[in-house]
Amino acid sequence: MWFYYLFFIFFVGTSAFAVEPSEILSDTRLENRARNLSSNIRCLVCQNENIDSSDSEFAKDLRLSIRDQLVKGHTDDEIEKFLVSKYGAFILFKPEFAGYNIFLYLFGPFVFIFGLITVLYVFFGSKRGN
Amino acid sequence: MISELGHFLLITAFCINLGLIANCISNKTVLAGYTSLFNKLESLLLTFIAISFLLLIISFINSDFSVKLVANNSHLLKPVLYKVAGTWGNHEGSMLLWVLILTVYLFLFQVSSSDYPKLLVRNVILVQLSTIALFLFYLLLLSNPFERLEFPPLNGQDLNPILQDVLLVVHPPILYLGYLGLSIPFSIAIGFLLTSDHNINIVRLIRFWSLVPFVFLTLGILLGSIWAYYELGWGGWWFWDPVENVSLLPWLINLALIHSVLILERRNSLLNWTILLSIMGFSFSMIGTFIVRSGLITSVHAFANDPSRGLFILLIIFLAIASSLFIYMTKRPNYENFMKLHFASKELWIIVQNLILLVIAAVVFLGTIWPFIIEAIFDEQVSVGEPFYEVSLTPFVVIFAFMLPIASKIRWTGKKIGDIRKIVILIFISTSLSVGAFIWKDFKLLTFIGLFLASWVCLSSILEFIFSFKSRPTLIEGLKHSLVLNYRLIGRTIAHFGFGLLIFGVTAVASWEIEDIRKVEVGESYYLKSYQIVFKGIDYSVEKNFKKVSGSFEVLNNNKLVGMLLPEKRLYPSRNEVTTEASINPTLFNDFYMVLGNKLDENAWVVRTYIKPFISFIWVGVILIALGGFFSLLSFTSYKKPRHEDIN
């Protein structure tokens, strides 16, 4: 008996499981946007998961909130801004291209161009041919 | 008793280790590797560490809960296989494995380096011994695996259920063989710098010892990826989690190294660069491993972290790396044999490829530590995850893949980029192939680019292999030359072809995956594309150390059975944790992937189904990349000074 009781608690009692059928919007375009958005939103109570794949209640609430805002006609940008204002920049997996994050985005291209110039200088600008 | 013995052996090993180091430094006439006493002591070091590791495994098998580590990570009811693997499923045990593998590599290097100058070998061994001493010291001081508990519990706390998997047996040891194999090129590089004679040719040594870890590291990362694919239940194969990122860093550096060493071999140039890459490779495997364990960065792999000890080891590692770089700065050979390069020479292309690999590594590294930097400087919290890496790395991967066939094909010090006509024709074929697939499925720019690159890399590596026959008088002789004698050509072809397949797999999964989430009642069936999926029933059962509920589903195509899917949810009572076990039915071109969700009412369950096209191409591609490294290693069995056509 206790065995089924445990089952009841763990498999039935926990009512959240990533995206649930009841959450899905009937409008596929809005639903796609919702999925896209939620893959960029961090589940704040999990280790390192987005809300799209997380089982937590927190993630579920955010998924519903995002869909609610989408139905009301908010743009993706507005929804992300709203989430950032409420929970902080930590919630976005892709940091905004602003402030100190610009350095993060430009670091790769900068190293590449700098490296390329160095390579070209060393090999073509050098007088020390053999 | 067992664990005291293990502890004692470790302490003795540490003493032997210090003795050997002292011998290396002080006595210049007693040369490492060339006196029987030194060799015996070295074997003793390996034996003691190996026995102490075995003793730890025995403690786990015996479920000796008076040992703290066993009590925290094992359980009476756990299957023996997981008791054994549980030895390295935690911080202390994995540290002991880490030291053991370092010592095994020391031993292998010693055995295989007899025809190199004694001074060089001694210095390399000195560096390797110092690395071992560093970690042994840390192990004994702060993470003693043999620590006893004053009041042993009746049962253990069990291993994290997510880790209870067959792959725990092989994934960490193979990954460690990769990470720690990089210690040998590192030691060679530093040892070489410490040796005043810079005319010693270390090309062959570095080439060999960078290929060994390459094979293991590739396989280790692959196993981790496959594990995440079926265990985490999100259906992805790469999550850009910090732990995955840091395993990618040494792999990327090592990849750059095995290509730059070709230039060193062929042109006797870029010696400093190769040495620097050798140092960076192992440095990144140390930084990566411990930055995650230090708890500075959150990750789904948070099973083995401990902030206080982690910070300590991180500090030591930074000191070690800083001193290596200091040795590099002060002792590096100050001559550099610069080549007069033409735009179409292989060297230039490989160097630019090297550069791109380094840029990718730099972006991944910065992305991984960015949240930490920002918190330290601005006291703000940011996240860096998958969407960021996709945006910032894709351009570089695209440039890299596009350049690869050309870099592989053109000649050393070439005056022109081969036969432009052939390249144009090949590009045309690849383009039309991808346009075909593109029209057949759907219209996305990235899909198109991915398909183009996949066919461009695959086709040209095959063509390059076939054309190599043509340089021989007869086809048979050509075949013999390419298949039997030229392991390097085979290795390169296989690895590059595998990279092409990998690109194809990634593109296909990203573009054509089908996902379905719905409520299904027992007996109900539904369609995904042309596949019919029938929910046959649900079943509850009790296993040895967990209880499970499992659904059974049939996949039908035109009323023919394609496969069964049996997704599970498990409850591990010892830790009160629930895990979802995805069920995967792999077919040649499609993986059917299913996760069981919650029970909604008496008969209805939430079910998540994916059809993942061509995901097997990702695994096969990576296996081929590792296999390519393996074939290149075979070239050392019949080593001769490479002739022009062999390495061109």
Helix and strand topology:
The complex is a heterodimer of chains A (130) and B (648).
Chain A (H helix, E strand, L loop, with lengths): L1 H12 L14 H11 L18 H15 L4 H12 L13 H25 L5
Helix pairs in contact in A: 2-3
Chain B lengths: L1 H25 L9 H26 L6 H6 L6 H6 L5 H22 L5 H25 L23 H16 L1 H12 L8 H29 L10 H26 L3 H23 L13 H25 L14 H33 L7 H24 L10 H21 L4 H23 L7 H11 L1 H26 L1 E8 L3 E4 L2 E12 L4 E11 L2 E6 L2 E5 L4 E5 L1 E4 L3 E10 L4 E10 L1 H20 L9 H4 L1
Antiparallel strand pairs in B: 1-10, 2-3, 3-4, 4-5, 4-6, 6-7, 8-9, 9-10
Helix pairs in contact in B: 1-2, 1-6, 2-5, 5-6, 5-7, 6-8, 7-9, 8-9, 8-11, 9-10, 9-19, 10-11, 10-13, 11-12, 13-14, 14-16, 15-16, 16-18, 18-19
Strand content of chain B: 5-15%
What is the C-level CATH assignment of the largest domain in chain A?
A: Mainly Alpha
**Termini separation of chain A (Å)?**
85 Å
What does the radius of gyration of chain A come to? 23 Å
SSE string of chain B:
HHHHHHHHHHHHHHHHHHEEEEEEEEEEHH
